[in-house]
Amino acid sequence: MTNFLDQLPKHIREIAEQVNVLAPEEVLTTPKVRFLDTRQQSLHTIVRKCTPDDVRVLKDAAAKWLAEMPQSADSLFKPLVNVRWSRVSFGCSALDRCTGGGVVARGITELCGAAGVGKTQLLLQLCLCVQLPRELGGLGKGVAYICTESAFPARRLLQMSKACEKRHPQMELNFLGNIFVENHIEAETLLACVLNRIPRLMQQHGIGLIIIDSVAAIFRLYTDYLERARHMRRLADALLSYADKYNCAVVCVNQVASRDGQDEIPCLGLQWAHLGRTRLRVSRVPKQHRMGDQLITVRKLEILYSPETPNDFAEFLITAEGVVNVPEPPVSSPPAKMRRL
């Protein structure tokens, strides 16, 4: 069977190869702006400037190829595994094993935990991993990051992005250029952003991950709980529609609270808990691991509930390079037996 790219004109084929979109299904699902964006391309490899008409010819050819390709009967009952309900890797094998491959691109994933346990560090690593191709655990898409508590940690993201570039030297990705950040401290502006600006961003750019850090900072200030429930429902409905329509992952951070010395529980009660699909909790473990001349506190990611994976937990470390596995202790060899003379 003839390859899809072989039947295209040379300059159209080069456009698809420059952004590593080689399959007709990927051509149809890739936003037009990605083909037109030359920030990731070397000046020595660009043969001619890509125009909107070139992108239209490429997408039309992909649609015609799929329409003329014969399909088997059983394939009509199978969803596209590489498009529907994908997962975004944490970039840490221990966390990926615990969660079944990472954050699922279906429903809302809640990440809760006390202040300073490493929730934002996990989010920054997800922002980098989602931009990787599917074979490396990503979606090849960008990120919409909404901050509600403090300023976006741009310097920390820069530090982690440099480490990610060293781990994947073959990938020429503009990690920082594919993360779109907004700050909102009130519910009205947050809802306006999610309901109005996020849809335009999803259409103009390939967004594979939406992050709200955090929902508790906005909705804990409400005194009218009926109004709070309505606003949280509007927010969740919009996020769920984006996850289903654009096959993107949605992660919302939640705070925890304790009363009278009891265990910490996530905020916002059942009104918010019923809107999420998966709840993950991050906490510190009372032990440390020595790396070089530093003692690093061990953290734990725990699955509280999820319809895809059983309750489980995994330990990890936060280093200058990002989130990594806890190294295995060296295996000590048993002492040699002494021979009796």
TrEMBL record:
Its main location: nucleus. Residues 84-256 form the RecA family profile domain. Keywords: ATP-binding, DNA damage, DNA repair, Nucleotide-binding, Nucleus. GO terms for biological process: double-strand break repair via synthesis-dependent strand annealing; germarium-derived oocyte fate determination; intracellular mRNA localization; oocyte karyosome formation; polarity specification of anterior/posterior axis; polarity specification of dorsal/ventral axis; resolution of mitotic recombination intermediates; t-circle formation. GO terms for molecular function: ATP binding; ATP-dependent DNA damage sensor activity; four-way junction DNA binding. The keyword Nucleotide-binding applies. It is found in: Nucleus. One of its GO terms (cellular component) is replication fork. PANTHER family: DNA REPAIR PROTEIN XRCC3. This is GG16853.
